[in-house]
Amino acid sequence: MKSNKNHSRRNFIIGGLAAGGSVVAGQALSAGDAAIIDKQPWSNELGDGVDVRPYGFPSKFVSNVKRRNVEWLTASTESSVNFTPIHELEGIITPNGLCFERHHAGIAEIDPTQYRFMINGLVEKELVFTLDDLKRFPRENKIYFLECAANGGMEWKGAQLNGCQFTHGMIHNVMYTGIPLKLILQEAGLKGNAKWILAEGADASAMTRSIPIEKVLQDCLVAFAMNGEALRPEQGYPVRLVVPGWEGNMWVKWLRRIEVGDQPWQHREETSKYTDLMQNGKARNFSWEMDAKSVITNPSPQAPLNHARGHTVISGIAWSGRGKVREVHVSLDGGKNWRKARIDGPSLDRSVHRFYYDFDWTGEELLIQSRAIDSIGYVQPTKDALRKVRGSNSIYHNNGIQTWHIRKNGEVENVEVS
Amino acid sequence: MLKCLNAIIISSGLFFAAWSDAASSEKFGLGRLATQQEIKAWNIDIRPDGSGLPKGSGSVVTGEEIYLEQCASCHGEFGEAVGRWPALSGGEDTLKDDDPVKTVGSYWPYLSTVWDYVNRAMPFGNAQSLSVNDVYAVTAYILNLNDLVDDDFVLSRSNFKDIAMPNKGGFYNDDRKDTEIWSAREVCMSDCKKHVEITARARVLDVTPEQEAKRSGREQPTNKSKAETSQEASLAGENVKLLLRGEKVFNKCKSCHALGESAKHKIGPHLNGIFGKAAGQQTGFKRYSKSILLAGENGLIWDNRNLTEFLISPKKKVRGTKMVFVGLKKPEDIEAVIYYIRSADKE
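Predict the joint structure of the above. Result:
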């Protein structure tokens, strides 16, 4: 026990000296660290009592951890997007207040007593439900990622934004509580020619998307809770659609209606938007599944390395719309050589996975990358490989490998490599 | 004994009837039948085959009037777009270019999508306010802006399907599984390439939102909405209820007007300090109509009465104003929004 303690203390001092004589370590040798020696106010005075924070919020020291938008992107914040600060998060679950927002007509604030959910079209009985009615169906709890198809869309033409919040932050991963849409459709009774559904929102954009019936019957949920509490207004309170593994735009928020039909509706969000324009001027449509993808969140441009050489932790997230993530590889030399990263925490179907790669940094410049391989064996491509197939005008579904350039001083920049 | 058993079976049968396993049965008996009127109210979607289209018609000429009044402030007089709002015309033959321009004319495969979208979502901030004939007319006008129909064209349900959109054949279903990316399953772990060079840097472009995005920039928590902040000030005599209502009403103005400390001009001028000021006097706003500038010169002051009249009907109060807004109907809403606008000046 004693020797153990000495050992770690020795390491601490040596480590401190090696790191260029950190001030704290130097002081510790002589007088000691003021953070320890001096009495801190929080160790002396009473703090807030219970109920001062009836709905708790994060420490005031992490107030920089928040969603951010890119102002020049859109004309108005009511039809815009902001980004999850993934460089500040740990584990796999995104806290509700940090889940990125994408609205087309601002946040609809729906009075739950005035909320109605309708099923119409090719069903035996066209039905209306209240929120309480919906909650009487059998429920499921499922953790799924939601990624906007345009995540990384600004990077198609080259490295543009300095921070994974902006390059990869249109993603979140929460536990949904909801009802299998299949059960609600069974209640209405599907007719034989039911092939597609149209999901519609109650906001002022009346968002609509067509979804094939096979997907709907397989795993779509009508969700009313996220991470244990009611959906946040920004995420569709009181009810949103969950379409596991498929592009976020289809997860219609403020869901008010499902129409059953025999062909797709070809609405604005599946023609003008969410179609992938190729180099030959033709566009791919109905590209719903999200491809396997990963990104190193620490270090990254907004979260530089704050120490000198020595033991270093690389941390990141990986996900796939087609299953679990089987492996993540990390490169320190821009893709010449790769090592297997360690996946830690739950590995769930179509959920974010957390990976780590620990190594001894020599203090030299690095070009760090990560590469995901999912459970069906799909390998995350390089950006160049993607552009070879897609050109650079397709906006959506950019799952290319991200490179961060780490300088000797620990600063990090978004770059692309040959 | 037998009797006794029977009794047990019967009573437990009753017991189970009240507890039957829901998951195994198909139906739960939840919800109620929708009425025809309810379905009609929400079932507004249109499909390429024309199903869902209501009866009606509208001409390019009427469409132009509606468009100039209700759409041009964002989409531009000719559909060319103002600022970063979306363009609705142009872009022919650009889909193979480095900077393709995707508009109704150059990209949209179906006309039904235009009708459906305008009907459900436009004008922005005042959705589902156009009549059926108005939607036909504006749709006809958007076609005209894209040189797809003549000036004397009238669009109706009967000729709707005759219109062929130029890029109709421009789409194909997801073929990712046929690409080399899909089949590239081999994984190289070492000596995967000889040289690595940096070919692009984000810093060159430098369009990342400001440095406060970096970890070092610590800020004080500011999670409170304006009304919430003022709720704390309510002891100091603020009318919180009115303020909250005003904040809500102001949502209708927000796509065009900003308010508060960091407010900038948008489609309309920011409204800081507007109360008590002459019309058309917000510094730095360059897009005032001649009419509102003239009204200001002739002594129109934004006091309670003038603002109220303007907000009931902008066009009646100031003929020729560029403010495209149907007007507020409820007197309480007007009172609240004026109170809200004024509260910004007290901060």
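The radius of gyration of chain B is 30 Å.
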